[in-house]
């Protein structure tokens, strides 16, 4: 079982949340799960209260891109979701920064 480590960036006052995980085709923690967990933490909400992720990005495509055959570490996807700027990297890192204007 793989765990997702989510932490508030303590050296910053911008509210950035960073999550690190390892995912794969059969992993319990998918990129989609990690994104929603990190965004929920960043905005202090329950994951079930978030808007559907498919309104921001295709969740199946995100999972497929980042879990297919060991995604290269250079792979990076950025998008807006639930009032946050989200960046997901092939290394398993997810960075979430609440939009200041949201």
Structural topology:
Elements (H helix, E strand, L loop, with lengths): L4 E4 L8 E4 L10 H12 L16 H9 L8 E6 L2 E6 L3 E6 L4
Antiparallel strand pairs: 1-2, 2-5, 3-4, 4-5
Q: Could you write a compact summary of the structure shown?
A:
This protein is α+β, with helices and mostly antiparallel strands and 102 residues long. It contains two helices and five strands.
Describe the structure.
The chain has 102 residues and is an alpha+beta fold. It is built from two helices and five strands, in the order ββααβββ. The chain has a five-stranded antiparallel beta sheet, with helices on one face. A hairpin with an 8-residue loop joins β1 (5-8) and β2 (17-20). The chain is globular, with a radius of gyration of 13 Å. The protein starts with a strand and ends with a strand. The model is unreliable at 9-13 (pLDDT under 50).
Range of helix content: 10-25%
Gyration radius, rounded: 13 Å
Give the overall shape.
globular
Contiguous runs where pLDDT drops below 50 for at least 5 residues = 9-13
State the end-to-end CA separation: 35 Å
**SSE series:** EEHHEEE
> Residue-averaged pLDDT, rounded?
80
Give the strand line-up of the largest sheet: 1-2-5-4-3
| Strand segment tally | 5
How would a textbook summarize the main sheet? 5 strands, antiparallel
Beta fraction of the residues? 25-35%
**Helices and strands: which structural class?**
alpha+beta
Annotation field: number of helices:
2
């Amino acid at each position: 079982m793989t765990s997702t480590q989510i932490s508030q960036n303590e050296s910053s006052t911008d509210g950035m949340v960073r999550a690190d995980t390892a995912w794969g085709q059969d992993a319990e923690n998918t990129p989609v799960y990690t994104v929603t967990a990190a965004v929920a933490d960043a905005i202090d909400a329950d994951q079930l209260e978030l808007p559907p992720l498919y309104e921001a990005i295709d969740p199946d495509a995100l999972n497929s891109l980042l879990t297919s055959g060991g995604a290269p570490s250079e792979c990076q996807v950025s998008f807006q979701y639930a009032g946050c700027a989200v960046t997901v990297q092939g290394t398993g890192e997810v960075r979430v920064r609440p939009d200041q204007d949201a």
